[in-house]
């Protein structure tokens, strides 16, 4: 009980005093948190005959320490708290489109836990938003190296490759993502759009076919397949796709239907 109270005190002290843009107060917060922890620990010791940090306890800390490969010291608890804190502020920053602040948080998270590929993947995606494509590719490649069976990472890198005009590379990454997760409709749809850029129109239609098989309620897949068919002058078939896209609520379907209906 006293441990949990100590844990929450530290955490909420971070939330209260270490808000956005106040990392310069970090050392002060650590000192204040340590003092509060020491007071409660002494009180606990005097009433219960002492309290030891045991990995055998049923507390959340015991579980988290084991999961993260940490020992049972106070410093390790601070590491957990610190990592949780930056994860929370990261969410807030991204929600508010503070992407430079998000990069700072991810830099701290990677410094604290350099073996977590998700942090590299997130930083890669934020760098992509900021148009730092070289940095994005480095981070996403690192995430893939660390966790090669994660299909999302290949899809993320494919989008970055597309931004720099490497459509062939994007198709390769999306193919790898599909091999790892063949039931994800979005991968086929994104690969189809890259094949259009490579002028592989019939292969693009095949990918849209698969995307529609997996997710027939997505109006974009119907509309985009119709657009490719229009480019190949398959007007009748394109018209049917546009009609379905309209039924599903695509905002540009009416204009596409009018164009496909022309003789």
Write the layout of secondary structure elements.
Elements: H1 2-17, H2 26-48, H3 60-68, H4 74-95, H5 99-112, H6 117-129, H7 133-146, H8 151-163, H9 167-180, H10 185-197, H11 201-214, H12 219-231, H13 235-247, H14 253-260
Helix pairs in contact: 1-2, 1-4, 4-5, 5-6, 6-7, 6-8, 7-8, 8-9, 9-10, 10-11, 11-12, 12-13, 13-14
The pLDDT mean sits at 77
Low-confidence stretches: 1-8, 10-15, 18-24, 37-81
Q: What level of helicity do the residues show? A: over 70%
| Shape by Cα distribution | elongated
Q: What is the CA–CA distance across the termini?
A: 78 Å
What is the beta-strand fraction? Answer: under 5%
Mind telling me the C-alpha Rg?
Answer: 26 Å
Number of domains as seen in the coordinates: 3
Largest sheet: none
Question: What sequence of helices (H) and strands (E) makes up the elements?
Answer: HHHHHHHHHHHHHH
